[in-house]
Amino acid sequence: MSILLIIRSSPAVSASPGIDFLFWLLTARARATPPRWLSLPSSSFSCSPSSPSPRLLLGFGYSFNGNNIVVNAGSANPLYFSVSRSNCDINSIRYRGHELQYQSQGTHIGSGLGSANVQVTQQNNYIKITCETPTLTHYLVARQGDSTIYMATHIAAQPSIGELRYIARLNSNILPWEHPFGAVSITGGSSATIEGSDVFLVNGQTRSKFYSSERYIDRGVHCVHGNNPEPIHACMVIPQPESSSGGPFFRDIETNNGGAFTALYNYMNSGHAETEPYRMGLHGPYALTFSRSGIPKLREVDLSFFAHLGIRGYVPDHARGRVSGNAWGIPSGHQMVVHWYNNEAQYWTYANSNGAFTSPPMKPGTYTQVLYQTEYKVAERQVSVWSGGTAWADISSTYTPAQPLFQIGRFDGQPFGFRNADKFLRMHPSDHRMSSWTRTFNVGASHEGEFPMAVFQAVNNNVEMYFHLNSAPGAAVFHVSTTLSFAGARPHVRVNNWSGPIPPAPRNINSRGVTRGAYRGWGEQYYVDIPAGVLVAGRNTITISAASGSSGSTFLSPNFVFDAVALYRR
């Protein structure tokens, strides 16, 4: 038996006479029972402006309220959300009776689609809202019983604003806090602007939405949450950014309480230290989940039901393939990372302690397979993937360095271990919690943590390294490994009284880096040939400065980030 109960209010219930309050209660198979009308006195219930719709559904389903589609997820912890039929904005998210949507702006792609063709369909336990523009299709899906808004975004061209993101603009009074990195990206209540329009001073600490980022390969679930009026978490779940750009070590904005609202993001591509062309096609699926206190576990999320929803560009697992193999030649103490990419997709995985690896399910095609010594590229090869099969592709490191006269840092593609590298991901380099940006280092006497992670032309240019040689080595090579350059900066090396050549400018990423907590670029390697007779027995000095045709002030002056440096006999 199925019952459709329609309750018509008296005109006094609503400010708009004639609005019907629809309660759908679906209990079994048949739909033959005719609707029954029941008039209630105005004191029975009311409709507040913050409600998702004056048409309320009991049980899974959707209705129309003016220009909005109102969806009831039919979940034990009730979730209603309202989507504009004009532009695809979510303009109400009501969870357990609490309005979580910021009321002055919507939740949407980019800064809003402006206009879109918005359609809704229901198939068994799923409601799908499809929003189409000439170059973009965005899907919002409700699954019966889940307090979750599932999504996917297909693009045929890059959005005109230059980045592809989904931003949930949420009620900062109910969801003020951020997970997993806490207050580092809470910028509301700032007393000063430190840099651009995205780094601020709050309670004496520098904060930015950029400080919420995490490497793709390590990223779990990021959330915003609060305890008043009760514990609530809103989380963004992104299982595989296969159509994003930047590779396994890319990172981007995830959360930001800016005061007026709390933003929860899925950045699918951006110009934030981006090192690859943007990929078209389907981004997702991904999910915006709501819970009381639990945080979803990424590895337990199953979005395979998207295969049955008619999502443009979706490739189910049975139509994908995998790559397995062994990685060789990575010293102990380093991560072994295997990365696959082509123009359409990107994937990655960690190899285990024995070097064995298996990729995630991949779209068929030919890929470049890269092996990293943590983040330092040491090998690549090609591999083809086919539907339903597993390709075998071993890969061995080709990095075989000579024994150095001295080395500072590890060739791992990261600045960690150097001075301030333990802090910069979550604060600006000008922050009072930073250690001083030193310029001198005594090889063999100074601790590695005293070597600066970066050279800023206007802050700590001309970093000097003092070292002692028992005998003159003759000709030598000085290797400077960098991870990221800003404003064309590259290392200019002087050895004692000899000045090396200024290297050509690196490729321009055209994005702020270390001041936003980024260190990953193209990882330029510089080798300086030192003639015989320059290095002497006894005390020697190597000076490294940031060369550039550009200029700037303090931490926005030309700069580069160190990975490691080493001196070798030639």
TrEMBL record:
<keyword id="KW-0456">Lyase</keyword>
<dbReference type="GO" id="GO:0005576">
    <property type="term" value="C:extracellular region"/>
</dbReference>
<dbReference type="Pfam" id="PF09284">
    <property type="entry name" value="RhgB_N"/>
</dbReference>
<keyword id="KW-0732">Signal</keyword>
<dbReference type="InterPro" id="IPR013784">
    <property type="entry name" value="Carb-bd-like_fold"/>
</dbReference>
<dbReference type="InterPro" id="IPR008979">
    <property type="entry name" value="Galactose-bd-like_sf"/>
</dbReference>
<dbReference type="InterPro" id="IPR029411">
    <property type="entry name" value="RG-lyase_III"/>
</dbReference>
<dbReference type="GO" id="GO:0045490">
    <property type="term" value="P:pectin catabolic process"/>
</dbReference>
<feature type="domain" description="Rhamnogalacturonan lyase">
    <location>
        <begin position="319"/>
        <end position="391"/>
    </location>
</feature>
<dbReference type="InterPro" id="IPR015364">
    <property type="entry name" value="RhgB_N"/>
</dbReference>
<keyword id="KW-1015">Disulfide bond</keyword>
<comment type="similarity">
    <text>Belongs to the polysaccharide lyase 4 family.</text>
</comment>
<feature type="disulfide bond">
    <location>
        <begin position="88"/>
        <end position="131"/>
    </location>
</feature>
<feature type="domain" description="Rhamnogalacturonan lyase">
    <location>
        <begin position="405"/>
        <end position="567"/>
    </location>
</feature>
<feature type="disulfide bond">
    <location>
        <begin position="223"/>
        <end position="235"/>
    </location>
</feature>
<keyword id="KW-0961">Cell wall biogenesis/degradation</keyword>
<keyword id="KW-0624">Polysaccharide degradation</keyword>
<dbReference type="InterPro" id="IPR029413">
    <property type="entry name" value="RG-lyase_II"/>
</dbReference>
<dbReference type="InterPro" id="IPR014718">
    <property type="entry name" value="GH-type_carb-bd"/>
</dbReference>
<dbReference type="Pfam" id="PF14686">
    <property type="entry name" value="fn3_3"/>
</dbReference>
<dbReference type="GO" id="GO:0030246">
    <property type="term" value="F:carbohydrate binding"/>
</dbReference>
<dbReference type="InterPro" id="IPR016590">
    <property type="entry name" value="Rhamnogalacturonase_B"/>
</dbReference>
<feature type="domain" description="Rhamnogalacturonase B N-terminal">
    <location>
        <begin position="60"/>
        <end position="313"/>
    </location>
</feature>
<dbReference type="InterPro" id="IPR011013">
    <property type="entry name" value="Gal_mutarotase_sf_dom"/>
</dbReference>
<dbReference type="Pfam" id="PF14683">
    <property type="entry name" value="CBM-like"/>
</dbReference>
<protein>
    <recommendedName>
        <fullName>rhamnogalacturonan endolyase</fullName>
        <ecNumber>4.2.2.23</ecNumber>
    </recommendedName>
</protein>
<dbReference type="GO" id="GO:0102210">
    <property type="term" value="F:rhamnogalacturonan endolyase activity"/>
</dbReference>
<dbReference type="GO" id="GO:0071555">
    <property type="term" value="P:cell wall organization"/>
</dbReference>
<keyword id="KW-0964">Secreted</keyword>
<keyword id="KW-0119">Carbohydrate metabolism</keyword>
